[in-house]
Amino acid sequence: MPKRMLINAFSMNCVSHIQQGLWVRDDTRQTEYTQLDPWVELAQILEKGCFDALFLADVVGVYDDYKGGPETSIIHGMQVPVNDPAMLIPAMAHATKNLGFAFTSSVLQSHPFSFARQMSTLDHLTNGRVAWNIVTSYLPNAGANFGLGGLPSHNDRYDLADEYIDVTYKLWEGSWEDDAVLRDRERGIYADPAKIHKINHVGKHYEVAGPHLSEPSPQRTPLLFQAGSSTRGRQFAAKHAECVFIIESRETLKGRANVITDIRNQATRLGRNPEDILFIQGVSPVVGGTEAEAKAKEAEYLEQFSTEGSLAHLSGSVGVDLGAINLDEPLQKIDSQSMRGFVKSLIESTPDKTQTFRDLIRTRISGQFLTGAPEQIADALQRWHGLGVDGFNIVYSITPGTFVDFIDSVVPILQSRGLMQKEYTPGPLRQKIFGNAKLPARHPAAAYRRG
Ligand SMILES: Cc1cc2nc3c(=O)[nH]c(=O)nc-3n(C[C@H](O)[C@H](O)[C@H](O)COP(=O)(O)O)c2cc1C
User: Are residues 132 and 189 part of one domain?
Assistant: First the structure.
């Protein structure tokens, strides 16, 4: 029996997440993001389709690099307006029994004491079905929104993340002992004060006395996701993450020093097991009854695609104002020497230099699509799986349509090949995925346990 794939839906509490420009279509519910109904219905659809989790991205600032301001992002609803992802979870959890809910929260955005309490509350309310996608932010406006005068340096952000996560571990794992809560009605004793501890954290950024205000929740520490693949990002993942969200090409994964091998090797050196970390690749399936039907659908999406919205997204993600580039000039005429690394390599890796930057963006977007008949999509996912990828975050073009198509046609094939679960394992999210509700003793959070 092959190891099963983890399958998550990737979304965001906003109008336009990744595939920019498609929100205008009649067959997508993106503009209803402020309502509970589409979210609750999505959760129920995903649970019927045996998905592991709904994974919610988030940002806490606007993308304002492109053309020197936020206007393009605002016009295209490109990740702004964006509402709080965590607030959606209780309603969706109430309408489901097994689906997990991963949400993104940056270490810049809230104090670890409040965040730890918010997480524990959600872990209680969902019976242990929450996961935290730990990010360090990349938008300068995010830093400016929290009084940091812009984005702290990459190193400072990861230093902060190291301390932040330590505080949360102390609260989740080290404050309340397992048998602290007695609920003894006869003696009228709810909890035993001798088993509830202050954490007395004193660090460079935070001082937190404790105790944690929430009693132990089913998972204590939520399932830990991480996204970020720089040297520091990989070190952080190796130490803390249980699931790592990656967007890699098949070629890079074939290389010996690829991100999966690297993080697993580092984790092993830290005393963890290689199988303690799962790697989840982002893919954007466009499924049709036949290949021709799928290609026609893809062509329609590309036609409606917003190049401007996409450039605003890309500019903010790489911290370069792509507004300075003449979109309709052939690549050979663009002075790539003056470009920062990512854009330079993007231009240089394009064989056909008669293409314009506008064409390049289109190719890049279509390159993200996994387009075909259901069998072809299942085959492609199986090939990724063969390269060591443990699962997928499904990026939508239209919602819930992309997920519905995938569930109706690709999921049964994956299930028949033994590659996807047909029913859920009982228990909290970590138990469904790793077999235990709590973090293993070899994870650094476990060092704070008492009793
Ligand atoms: C696949 C992927 C998804 C990400 N999702 C988010 C997100 O939703 N919100 C966010 O603020 N950062 C997100 N990030 C950014 C990272 O968490 C991190 O802050 C950024 O990549 C810088 O880290 P790095 O230099 O280690 O890659 C994502 C990164 C990757 C690779």
Answer: yes
Q: Is residue 1 part of a domain?
A: no
Residue nearest to atom 27 of ligand 1 (CA): 228
Ligand 1 environment, Cβ below 6 A: 57-59, 104, 106, 135-138, 154, 227-230, 232-233, 245, 247, 282
**Are residues 44 and 85 located together in one domain of the fold?**
yes
35 C-beta neighbours (distance < 10 Å), count: 10
Is the model's pTM score more than 0.70?
yes
Q: Are residues 261 and 313 in the same domain?
A: no
**Structural domain containing residue 183:** 6-291+369-444
Give the residue among 228, 239, 236, 226 at the shortest CA–CA distance from 160: 236
Which secondary-structure segment (H or E) carries 47?
helix 36-48
Number of compact structural domains in the chain? 2
Q: pLDDT at residue 283 above 90?
A: yes
- Ligand 1, atom 22, lies closest to the CA of 228
124 shares its domain with 159: yes
* CA 22 – ligand 1 centroid, Å: 23
* Ranges 5-19, 43-57, 164-178, 314-328: which has the least confidence: 314-328
- Map tokens 């293409």 to a residue: 355
Q: Whose CA is nearest to atom 8 of ligand 1?
A: 57
Same domain flag for 322 and 342: yes
Top mutation candidate among 138, 141, 158 for ligand 1, by most atoms within 8 Å of CB: 138
pLDDT, one tens digit per residue, over 209-228 is 999 999 999 999 999 999 97
The domain boundary residue, chosen from 331, 365, 399: 365
DSSP letters spanning 173-218: HHSB-TT-EEEETTTTEEE-GGGB----EE-SS-EE----SSPPPS
